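Posting for a labmate who doesn't have an account.
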Amino acid sequence: MLRRLMDYLRLLLFVCGVLLGVQVPAFVDQYGKALTAHTQEAKQSLAEFQRDADRFFGGDIDRLIDHYKQNPDAVFNAGGESIEAIYHRYRLLSEALTEFNRSAYGGFDQLILSPLPSPSACCLVCCLPCCAN
């Protein structure tokens, strides 16, 4: 009886190990692909503003954002906040992607120890507070 129970336990551990060995790397791979896609999307969203910064402010997007935010027109001011949110999101994603690609285990480390906040729960709702961290 005890031998049979141990055989079942061993079989269960083997099946769990195989499932984890297949599923976890695939999940990390999908996380990396999603991170890359989000980074590219943020970069594309920022591209027009970066061109304006290159053209008028020597490439300094912070100066462009300040220019927008200092404008007394409420629409321009709000535009500056939007650009700033996109810029902070892009920087956060770029840093996370760099960390993810740093080593063979970087994706596992990042996914387990310091995952990014969900864009829908963070930056798209409240714009800056959790993205600036």
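Reply:
Got it, the structure tokens are right above this. Confidence is low (pLDDT under 50) at residues 120-133.
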